[in-house]
């Protein structure tokens, strides 16, 4: 998220922004948004909201999409299945950006967004010093 802010702000800002203020604003905005979401999601009727963990979608996209169709009672999964599988096939060469997250950043996230980390049982990404052969061949 900080990477996005750094890139977007340099193009869109009208004045110089203090990087510390940008990070503080981002931390506050996300915390407020997530507190509101976590409060309001309880008022959304069953079948009208489905949450998706990116890691689950990334690991088994078709299974997670089918779960979403089921959870939201969306029609025509059988018709949607093949076009979605075809689209996912076009992503086979995609490679995510890799970021090294330092312990200070993990601590900052825990202090400011720990309630979301706990609610969705997230863990900091495992830090790797070198790529394994498997990482080089997996999307």
Order of H and E elements: HHHHHHH
**Strand pairing plus helix content: what structural class?**
mainly alpha
Low-pLDDT segments: 128-139
Instruction: Choose one word for the global shape.
Output: globular
What share of residues are in beta strands? under 5%
Largest sheet: none
Distance between the termini: 21 Å
Number of helices, where a helix is a run of at least 4 consecutive DSSP H or I residues: 7
Number of strands: 0
How much helical structure, as a percent, in the residues?
55-70%
Rounded mean pLDDT is: 84
Q: Radius of gyration, rounded?
A: 19 Å
Description:
The protein is mostly helical. It starts with a helix and ends with a helix. The protein is 61% helix and 0% strand.
Describe the SSE topology.
Elements: H1 2-12, H2 19-40, H3 54-59, H4 61-71, H5 77-89, H6 103-119, H7 133-137
Helix pairs in contact: 2-6, 4-5
Give a nutshell description of this structure:
The chain has 139 residues and is mainly alpha-helical.
Protein traits:
139 residues; mainly alpha; 7 helices; disordered C terminus
């Amino acid at each position: 998220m900080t990477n996005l802010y750094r890139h977007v702000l340099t193009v869109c800002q009208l004045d110089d922004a203090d990087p510390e203020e940008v990070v503080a604003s981002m931390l506050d905005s996300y915390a407020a948004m997530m507190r509101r979401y976590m409060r309001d999601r309880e008022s959304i009727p069953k079948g009208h909201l489905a949450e998706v963990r990116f890691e689950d979608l990334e690991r088994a996209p078709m299974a997670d999409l089918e779960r979403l169709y089921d959870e939201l009672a969306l029609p025509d999964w059988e018709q949607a299945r093949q076009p979605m599988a075809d689209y996912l096939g076009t992503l086979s060469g995609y490679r995510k950006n890799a970021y090294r997250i330092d312990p200070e950043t993990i601590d900052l996230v825990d202090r400011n967004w720990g309630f979301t980390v706990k609610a969705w049982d997230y863990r900091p990404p495992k830090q790797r010093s070198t790529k394994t052969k498997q990482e080089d061949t997996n999307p």
